[in-house]
Amino acid sequence: MTMMKKLLTSAIASTLMASGAQAAISNDTVKIGYLADMSGTYRDLAGPNGQSALEMAIADFGGSVKGKKIEIVSADDRNSPDTSSSTVRRWVENENVDMVAGMVASSVSIAVSKILEENDKLGIISGSAASSITNEHCTPNHIHYVYDTYPLANGTASAVVKEGGKSWYLLTADYAFGHSLESDVRRVVEANGGEVVGAIRHPFPTQDFSSFVLQAQASGADVVGLANAGADTTNAITTASEFGVTQSGQTLAALLLFLTDVHALGAQTAQGIQLTTGWYWDMNEETREWSDRFMDKTGVRPTMVHAGIYSSTIQYLKAVEATGSDDAQTVRKQMMDTPINDMFAKNGKIRIDGRMVHDMYLAEVKTPAESKNEWDLYKILRTIPAEESYRPLSESKCKLVKN
Amino acid sequence: MSMIFGVPLAVLSGQLLIGIINGAFYALLSLGLAVIFGLLKIINFAHGAMYMLGAMVTVLMFNALGVSYWVALFMAPLLVGAFGVVIEYFLLRRIAGQDHIYSLLLTFGVALIIQGVLINWFGVSGLRYAMPDMFKGGINLGFMFMPYYRAWVIVAALLVCFGTWFVIEKTKLGAYLRAGTEDSQLMQGFGINVPLLISLTYGFGVALAAFAGVLAAPIYSVTPVMGSTTLIVVFAVVVIGGMGSIGGAIITGILMGVIEGLTKTFYPPASSAVIFLVMVLVLMFRPSGLFGKEA
To answer: Is the ipTM of this complex over 0.90?
Structure first.
C-alpha cells in the first residue's frame, strides 16, 4: 500500500513539474553548466578564466533571478565530443542543468547541441568558431554568440586579397572547425578574384610545422593562410618565421588568433599580422572598465570569448527574469526579441538560426615600439558592420530558416 | 623538374631532411626511455613531462636570471636530472622489483601532477623564448631554406646519442651498469654501490629528455602540455625499436622521423597515425621490436 502511495505521489509530482516548466523556474534554481577546455590547448582563451567571467556575470546580476538562486556546475570538455556528450547528458538528464555555457572546440559544440535539442535545453556557445554551427548544424536549442569562421574569412582574407595577395596556400586543422574555416576562406578569396592553389590538412594538434611550412614555401603562393587555432597557430607562426616565409616574399595570414595567442607570441614575432576579432579589451571606456575588473580577478586581459561569456550570461539571466521561466524555447525567444547593447556588442541581434550578429573588427598587431605594455597588442583598422560580417540568412542551410 | 609520385624531387629532399631533424628529437627522447627501461626495467611515463621541464626551465632561467642558451644546455639537464634522482630515491625505489605496471602508473601520476601544477602557474598559451642570436637566419640549400638552428639540432642530438650509446655499450662504467641491473646482489658483493648507480641512471635518462627540451625551446612553443603529445609517439618509437635496445632506439627514432615526414608530404592527415601503424605492423610480425632480442 505504501509502495503504491509513493508511486502515485511521485507520478503526480512529476506531472505537475513537467506542466509547470513552461511558466516557472524549474526546481527553483537556474542551473548553468560551464563546459570548456580547462587543461588542454584551448584552455587560456576560455578555460577557468571563462568560468570567472561567468561568475562575474552572476554576481553583477545580483546572485539570484526572480528570487531563485543561480548555480554553476563546470566540467573539462577535454576537447572531446564523446566526453562532452556524456557530461552534458548527465547534466541535463540527471542534474537539472538549464543552460550550458562556454564550449570551445567546434566538434564539441556540434555534439553537445544535438543533446541539448533532444532534451530541449539551451546552449550558448561562446568559444567555437565553425560557421556550420548555425548553418547545417543549427538547432532551435543553441545560440552562437561571439564570432564564427564566416566573418574571420570575410575580414582577414578579403583585406589580404585586396592588398594583392591573390594566390593562397592553406594550412588547415583537420577537424570540423578547420574545414569550416577553409571553405569560408576559399569562398572569400575566390569572390575577390584570388585563387587557393593548395591546402594541407594537418592533424590536430601538431607541434612541428616545418614540413608543412616547407610545402607552403615550395608552392610559391603569395599568401600562406593558417586555418587553425591556439597552439597550432602559434607553432606555425614561429616555424614560418624561422624558415623565413615572410623574408622570401610570402605573406602570412592567421585567420583565427586570440589575444592570448598574440600575447604568447609577443609583439616582436607577431607584429604586423592582421586578424579579425569580435571584441578587444582596449576599444572604449566600457570595455576597459570591464576588462580592469576581469584582470583584478584573473590576472590577465580577457579574450573576446571571456567577454562573450559574460555578456551572454547577463542576456540569458535578463531573459529568464523577463519571462519568469527557464524553459529553453521561452528564453531563446525572449533573447531573440531583445537587442544586445552592452560592453560586448552594440545593437547585437540573435537571429532565428541562433547566430548572434554584431560588428566585427579588423585589427593589426602593434609593433614593439607601439605597444605600451604586454597586453597593448592590437590597433583596430576597421569596423566590419554586422550585416557585412556574417552569413546572410538568404544563403543559410539551417533547417529553421525557410528559404 | 623531376617528380616522384607527383612531388617534385626538390620538395622531397627537403622533406627528407626535415624528417631527419625531427627524427633526431625522437632519437634523443626514445634513447632516454630505452636507457631507463633497458637498465632499470622502469616504464617511464614521466618522460614527456621531463622533456617539457627541460624547456620550461630553460625559459624560466632566462626570464629570471638571464641565463643564456649555452649555459641552459648544461644547466637544465642537470637540474631536471637531479629532480629525477629525487623521484627515483623517494618514489621509484619503493616499488623496485614489482610488476612493470606499478612504475608505469607511478610515473604517469608524477607526470600529471607536474603538468597540472605548471598549467595552473603558466597557462597553456606558451612562454616566449627567443632564438639565440648566433642561430638566427639560415642557408639556402637550393632545394630548401635550412635554418642554422635545425642543423645544430641534428649535430647536437646525434653527438649526445652516440656518446650515450658508447658509454653504455663500450665502457667499463656501462658494463657495471648492465651487470648491476642483471644481478645487483652479486655486484654489491664486488663492492659496487648499486642503488646509487640506479639513481644516477634514472637521473641520466631524464636528463636526456631535458636536453631535448632545451633543444626544442627556441623552435616550439614552450607550454606545460608540450610533453604529453610527444610522449605517446616516442613510446611507439621505443616499441618499434625494441624495448631497451639502445642502438635500436636511436636508429628507429630517425627512421620514424623520416617516415612521418614523408607522410606529411604525400598524405598529411595520416601523419599523426603513421607511426602507430608501423608499430602495429612491427608488433604483428616481430613482437620484440626491430632491434629487440627475442624473448
So the answer is: no
